[in-house]
């Protein structure tokens, strides 16, 4: 089922047309999550930020991923995907269109999305935060804090070698506990997206900047971030307090490294676990 994209301004009209039925109950994707909402105006962004205030922190409420063209200080950010666990709502923030306003527009209480991203007291879950942090810091001066890196959490749960990290796709296939039908649907959406943006498959990363976004790209952008809470719950239940402290420290170190002048987000070293972790038993 292809996701229908809904802008924030369209929600009242849609509710009226459906007799007041809520998006959460009726406008849903194939996996039961509300249809992704595109945030491409400052008014919609301000409303979204207002909805993010006073959310639970354990488990974390906010799960984030980014897409872009050469996502780094040398490229651009196109879309920021935000999944909000309590509402199961996924937002696609159109950074390509809004640029700096995506992070500076404020809610009625004066809080911006930048404030949330930089808050130590609001946990945000990323999978391998390094390139995302690199791009956010160097393009928009966002100093990420309160980060829980799922890639590091996965390493901590292992009973085998901790020398190398795993990618998100492998973690989803192995640890997200998807049903057979869910796994087939996930792979189908993934393959459609890759064909559109991967040059080796005949695509172009510029597809992330095409407007309006195609339904295939909407599905691609939304689906992985919606699975992150499943991985967080799976890994967190198997992590000791000692390992949790290591994860918090290493997540901060990854952000710090990504902001340095010497950071390069490509290369074999990116596949290595944090220093010293491989020898811990």
Structural account:
The protein has 281 residues and is α/β, with parallel strands linked by helices. It has a single domain, classed as Nucleotidyltransferase, domain 5, CATH 3.30.420.10. It contains twelve helices and seven strands. The chain has a seven-stranded mixed sheet with strand order 1-2-5-4-3-6-7, with helices on both faces.
Sum this structure up briefly:
By secondary structure, this protein is of the alpha/beta class. The chain is 43% helix and 12% strand.
**CATH topology label:** Nucleotidyltransferase, domain 5
Mean pLDDT: 91
Biggest sheet record: 7 strands, mixed
The computed structural class is alpha/beta
Task: Note the overall shape.
Answer: globular
Organism: Colletotrichum orchidophilum
Domain 3'-5' exonuclease: 36-240
Pfam family, one: DNA_pol_A_exo1
GO molecular function: 3'-5' exonuclease activity; nucleic acid binding
């Amino acid at each position: 089922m292809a996701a229908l994209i809904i802008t924030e301004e369209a929600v009242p009209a849609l509710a009226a047309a459906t007799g007041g039925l809520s998006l959460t109950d009726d406008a849903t994707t194939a996996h039961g999550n509300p249809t992704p909402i595109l945030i491409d105006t400052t008014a919609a962004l301000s409303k979204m930020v207002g909805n993010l205030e006073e959310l639970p922190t354990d488990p974390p409420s906010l799960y984030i991923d980014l897409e872009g063209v050469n996502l780094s200080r040398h490229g651009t950010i196109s879309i920021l995907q935000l999944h909000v666990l309590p509402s199961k709502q996924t937002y696609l923030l159109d950074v390509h269109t809004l640029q700096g306003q995506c992070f500076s527009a404020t809610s009625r209480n004066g809080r911006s999305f930048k404030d949330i991203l930089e808050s130590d007291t609001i946990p945000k879950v990323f999978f391998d935060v390094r390139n995302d942090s690199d791009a956010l810091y160097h393009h928009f001066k966002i100093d990420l804090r309160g980060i829980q890196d799922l890639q590091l959490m996965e390493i901590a749960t292992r009973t085998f070698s901790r020398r190398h990290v795993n990618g998100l796709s492998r973690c989803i296939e192995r640890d997200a506990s998807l049903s057979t039908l869910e796994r087939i649907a996930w792979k189908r959406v993934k393959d459609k997206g890759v064909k559109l943006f991967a040059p080796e498959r005949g695509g172009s990363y510029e597809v992330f900047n095409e407007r309006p976004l195609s339904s295939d790209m909407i599905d691609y952008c939304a689906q992985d971030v919606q699975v992150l809470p499943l991985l967080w719950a799976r890994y967190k239940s198997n992590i000791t307090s000692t390992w949790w402290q290591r994860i918090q420290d290493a997540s901060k170190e990854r952000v710090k490294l990504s902001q340095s002048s010497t950071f390069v987000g490509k290369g074999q070293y990116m596949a290595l676990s944090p220093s010293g972790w491989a020898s811990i038993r």
